[in-house]
From TrEMBL:
The family this protein is said to belong to: Belongs to the pyrimidine 5'-nucleotidase family.
Record SUPFAM superfamilies: HAD-like (SSF56784)
GO terms under biological process: nucleotide metabolic process
Domain of life: Eukaryota
Upper lineage: Eukaryota, Viridiplantae, Streptophyta, Embryophyta, Tracheophyta
Species the sequence originates in: Rhamnella rubrinervis
Entry protein name: 5'-nucleotidase
Pfam families the record matches: UMPH-1 (PF05822)
Top EC group: hydrolase
One annotated Gene Ontology cellular component of this protein: cytoplasm
Length: 354
C-alpha cells in the first residue's frame, strides 16, 4: 500500500527589492510543492522523476536573503564550502534502490573479513543512534568501532586494487549538478572541504571514476590509508575521524590532503587560510552535519539540507535546522544557482540591472 500526499506549502516571497534587482533568481527557492512519498520500487522511480522539479523549502526567506547579501558583500575570497559526502554529494536513490555509501561499497576481496566488518556494523550502528547512551560513551564506542574496522581492513589484506574494483562495481552516483558546482567553485578559487567519517582513499577513487576529473579546490577531510609499494594497506594516517567528531576540528586531525591525487601540482589552501574564510555554505543530509562548521569562527553560514527520506516525520526539524531544505533526493542545480548568486559582486549586479 502506498500513498502520496500533495500539499501546497506556504513559502515566503523575497522582498521586492530583490525581485527588482534580478541579482537573485527565484527559481531555486520557489517551487511551492512538497511531495510525501512512500512505498516500493514504482514510487521510488516516480520520486526520482519528481526530483526534476527540485522541491525546496525555505523556512525564513528574509533571514536567508540577509545571509545571501552578507556573503555577497564580503566577497568570494571570504567564502568556503563545507560538504558532507554520502547522500549529500551523492544520490540517496540509484535506479530505484538505496545508493551505496562510500563505506558500504567496499568489498575487500576477503569474504571472511567483509562478514566481520558487517557484524561490527550490526553491533555498533544501533548504539550510535541509541537515545539512552551519553555522547561521551557513544564517542568511546565509535572510536572502538572505527578502530576495530580499520584493524580488520589491515588484517584482512585490503589492497588498493580492491578499492578500485569496489568503486567500479558499486551503485554510488553523484547528484546531477555536482560537476557544475565543483567547476564553478574551482573557477572562483573557492575551497570545498568534503568531511567524511569514511575513507578518503575511497572517496577520491569515487571522484576519479564517477566524475572523471579532479579539482584543485576540493579537499577530503577523512581517514587516509597508507599502502606499500605493492598496494597493500599498511596503516592509517592521523587521528581517526568517526561519525561523532566529524567537524572542523577534524581539519587539524586529518592527515595531509591530496596525497594520492598525483595530477594536483598546485598547493591548495592550507588549514590556516581556510579558517580565514569566515563565510560558509554548508551542505549536509543529517542535522548532525551542521556540526561540520564547529570550531570555525564563521561570520555568516548558509546551511543547505538534503532531506532524502522519511520526509513526513523529519521536515519540521530540517526546516528549523537548515536555511534551505531540498526534498526527494533533489539535484544540485539549486545550489549551483545559489553559489553563483553568492559570487555576484556589485558590478555584476549593476550590469544585470542596467
Ligand atoms: Mg551523509
Amino acid at each position: 500500500m502506498s500513498y502520496r500526499l500533495h500539499i501546497i506549502f506556504k513559502t515566503l516571497p523575497f522582498p521586492s527589492n530583490v525581485l527588482h534587482s534580478q541579482c537573485i533568481s527565484l527559481s531555486p527557492y520557489f517551487t511551492p510543492r512538497v511531495w510525501f512519498c512512500s512505498g516500493g520500487f514504482r514510487d521510488r522511480m516516480e520520486m526520482e522523476k519528481s526530483c526534476i522539479s527540485s522541491e525546496v523549502v525555505v523556512g525564513d526567506s528574509e533571514l536567508l536573503e540577509k545571509k545571501i547579501n552578507a556573503i555577497r558583500s564580503a566577497g568570494q575570497w571570504k567564502l568556503q564550502v563545507i560538504a558532507d559526502f554520502d547522500a549529500t554529494l551523492t544520490k540517496y536513490w540509484v535506479n530505484g534502490c538505496r545508493g551505496q555509501s562510500s563505506h558500504g561499497l567496499l568489498q575487500q576481496g576477503n569474504p571472511e573479513y567483509d562478514l566481520k566488518r558487517q557484524e561490527l556494523f550490526e553491533y555498533y550502528h544501533p548504539l550510535e543512534f541509541s537515545p539512552t547512551i551519553s555522547i561521551e560513551e557513544k564517542t568511546k564506542l565509535m572510536e572502538e568501532w572505527w578502530g576495530k574496522t580499520h584493524g580488520l581492513l589491515i588484517e584482512g589484506g585490503l589492497t588498493y586494487d580492491s578499492i578500485e574494483k569496489s568503486v567500479a562495481n558499486s551503485s554510488i552516483a553523484f547528484r546531477e549538478g555536482v560537476i557544475e558546482l565543483f567547476e564553478f567553485l574551482e573557477g572562483k578559487d573557492i575551497p570545498i572541504l568534503i568531511f567524511s567519517a569514511g575513507l578518503a582513499d575511497i572517496i577520491e577513487e569515487v571522484l576519479r571514476q564517477k566524475l572523471h576529473k579532479s579539482f584543485k579546490n576540493v579537499k577530503i577531510v577523512s581517514n587516509r590509508m597508507v599502502f606499500d609499494d605493492n598496494g597493500h594497506l599498511l596503516s592509517f594516517k592521523g587521528k581517526t575521524i568517526h561519525s561523532l567528531n566529524k567537524n572542523e576540528h577534524a581539519l587539524d586531525m586529518a592527515a595531509p590532503l591530496h596525497d594520492r591525487l598525483g595530477d594536483i601540482d598546485q598547493p591548495t589552501d592550507d588549514n590556516a587560510s581556510v579558517k580565514m574564510r569566515t563565510n560558509v555554505l554548508l551542505l549536509g543530509d543529517h542535522i548532525g552535519d551542521l556540526r561540520m562548521s564547529d570550531g570555525l569562527n564563521y561570520e555568516t553560514r548558509i546551511s543547505v539540507g538534503f532531506l532524502n527520506d522519511n520526509i513526513e516525520n523529519s521536515l519540521d526539524s530540517y526546516r528549523e535546522a537548515f536555511d534551505i531544505v531540498y526534498l526527494n533526493d533533489a539535484p544540485m542545480t539549486g545550489v549551483v544557482k545559489l553559489v553563483s548568486q553568492l559570487c555576484l559582486n556589485g558590478a555584476d549586479c549593476h550590469t544585470l540591472t542596467s
